[in-house]
Amino acid sequence: MNHQTLIAILLLSPLIGFLINGLRYKSTNYVIAGTVATLAVATSFVCAIMLFLGLVDAPVESRRLTADFFNWIAVDNFKINAGFVVDQISAIMILIITGVGSLIHLFSIGYMHHDKGVTKYFAYLNLFVFNMLILVLGDSLLTMFVGWEGVGLCSYLLIGFWFSDSAKAAAGMKAFITNRIGDGAFLLGMFILFMTFGTLNMYELNALAPTTVEASWLGAVTLGTLLLFVGATGKSAQIPLYVWLPDAMAGPTPVSALIHAATMVTAGVYMIIRLNPLFIAAPNTMMVIATIGAATAVLAATIGLTQYDIKKVLAYSTVSQLGYMFLAVGVGAFGAGMMHLMTHAFFKALMFLGSGSVIHGMHEEQDIRKMGGLKKYMPITHATFFMGWLAIIGFPLFSGFFSKDEILWKAFSSPRGHELFWVAGVIGAVLTAFYMTRLMALTFWGQSRVDKNVHPHESTALMTVPLIILAILSVVGGFVGVPHVIGQYLGHIPNFWEHWLEPVIKAIPANEMTAFHSENHEALEWSLMGTSVSLAMISALTAYMFYIVKPGASEKFKKLLGPIYNLVNNKYFVDEMYFAGIINPIIRQSKNLWQYVDVNFIDKMTYWTSDVVNGGGKVVRSFQTGNMQQYAMYIGVGLVIVLSFVLMR
Amino acid sequence: MSADAFLFWFLSLLVLVSGLSVVLLTNPVYSALCLAMTMVGVSALFVTLNAYFLAGVQLIVYAGAVMVLFVMVLMLFDLKHETQAFTRGKITGAIKIASVGILAGLVVGAITIGKSLENIKAVADNAQAADTTKILSENLFLKNVFGFEALGVLLLVIAVGTVALSRSKGGTHAK
Amino acid sequence: MQSSDILSTIGLEHYLVVSAILFAMGMAGVLMRRNLIVMMMSIELMLNAVNLSFVAFSKFNNNSEAQVMVFFVMTIAAAEAAVGLALAVAIFKRFKEVNIRFFEHLKG
Lengths: 649, 175, 108
Hints:
Number of domains of chain C: 1
CATH architecture of chain C: Orthogonal Bundle
Oligomer: heterotrimer
Distance between the termini of chain A: 86 Å
Helix content of chain A: over 70%
CATH class of chain C: Mainly Alpha
Distance between the termini of chain C: 59 Å
Number of helices of chain A: 26
Number of strands of chain A: 2
Number of helices of chain C: 4
Structural class of chain C: mainly alpha
Shape of chain C: elongated
Largest interface: B-C, 89 and 72 residues
Largest sheet of chain A: 2 strands, antiparallel
Structural class of chain A: mainly alpha
Order of helices and strands of chain C: HHHH
């Protein structure tokens, strides 16, 4: 079948799943709901594989499959079609979304089977996949924005899934509103780009991107891309709009795995990679992106050190790893950023699902202070989580190692990079290793602090099989993008990843390359790699010491750091600052406006209007005296007037 | 002054004075009687206009039937004096009289100013004393026979309706 | 002389003037009098005035159609008087008054 049909099935399959489950939303039959939903996403996965193979077969210059379904907007010279494009970048994305998505759907059947709203849950999940696919496949910024908004909506619906708990509902609202602020900036960015280039089609934008870079901060491309990036910070949880992601852990755990680890939060990174020629033409924007990415990576990692909720640790870890991705695209390493996106999807989804398995086995317990020694109760969960842990701390030859080290090297060596970015990245890696080892130690290893009445058990096959698959991917997933310096010693493994993405990633202009970049720096790369890996391993070992070998050491350290610990533990009081500085003043202003404008002024205007009409009515009513002779008089007077007109003419 | 003219002036004076009395007298029975006088005067005017049949019909129908009906109903009411015979309200009264006067003035002015009436003056003397009754009946029964029959039906309906009205128990607001 | 001409030769306009004045008096009666019966009598007066003008036109235009019209008008006037009086009787039976100052039910 031709690729238009494949793209159509890919998109419509989750939509049909949503409609089927949506119409039966009151049913508690999780078997039907789960099967329908999983089959829908699995169908899309099969289509994604076929499209990917279609791309592989095609010659390098024409690796692009398009489908134009209908004309959506046609106003004057502004034409947007419902067009979808599968090229090198989006092929990877749809594989991740549908593949990891199918596994998460499978996991959800086991996780949510006792919930009363299980059909509604699966309907929302399918709707989310549909919107995410629109986001990555859309060929214009506006089509992508449709999916952008749609995933924001589904994120709200799923985070606030148990909305009878007002805290969970508030978390959903926080996610949506923070997202919307970012979306406002996204819209402004689209306006500026449309004004400058006259089109929103991404290929045309990339073709029209200026080849000479913009030096000023107020250039159209810089402003437009900067605003698009602000939108990305909302969606992908960077400073300043990251505050929703830790709260989003109020939703069911598979939702956190799908939306807040593997797919939705990567939308911002994806958008930047898509439009990389535009961003390359705006070095100021890229510097901002890299700085914010690095800062977020470090900030989130520090907060993750202090959290006791297993999901919150993973949430801050996600924010931190997203910071790495933005750091990568900020220094021009778009391929490395994309690769980290993929490997992060594998190991972070794995760890979220693993934590879901732990929570399920511990009967909804999420505090890691009440866990410990779960290794012997949940062997499969532990083994798979172990793989994910090795991947995220960057243990050599696991997937996370390849992607993270590529980012660190590019942060150091790229013409748009800086040594300080590398330092920040290494600090982030050290902290990541520490808190992830802490998590492992407190949850799975060491003495059991489990409550006497809780009997942890391993999860069913429905939940462990996805974990195993994701663990395998976390181990071997990195080998598609082995950097040349390592690959040459491992039997000349080529860097598939870089070759695959080369046609769509624009290189940094040649005039920015200094002498430094033209030489071969194998030795430098090896030494930097060695430094970062060894520092991470030392940090992991330290964490092991703190929590397993000498359990009291962490408490002493906490007391030592006193006020600093308090600051970090309270997330640097960012939420409180936002409330005091922005949200509460707005609420006060709204109340004032309601009081003084709405009630006093507008309501009075409406009363005044009705009074006028009433008064007018009274005046007119005075004609109706009921005195028939007066009516006859009016007739007579009228007759006289008409006659006089007729006769005087 | 010829006999025609004298007759005309006398009769029109009679008619106008009686008509004024109808409006101005407060006792309704007196008004009714003056109205009868007016009818008779108008009938006489018909005669001077050579409409003999119509003069007879006027006398029989109007002065003989309608006025009798009026007087009979007035007798039913037994009104000796009229409290508040004319409208209150000086301003509206003034407007009414003014409008009536202006109306009369307009019409009279229109009539006398109209130049086309000069031609008709000449025709006046050629008025034939033809057998107007015959011509009238031909017109009525041949050309306008439908209207004539319809009039008959109308009278029938009126008769039935009047009986129904007077026998009814007072309409929708009756207790 | 014009003035003697007007007085001695009776033309159409004389009759029409009489008719107009009679009509005006009838209208004044309808507007000014408050007794229901007197109002109806004033209406009869107006109809008579109209009849007079019709007959005058009939004579001076040598047209007998106008006399047919008078015939019809007379019949209808009689019918209308009958109905009006029946109504007046019904009103008197109900309200014991025929002075229209008591009947301002249309007052808005």
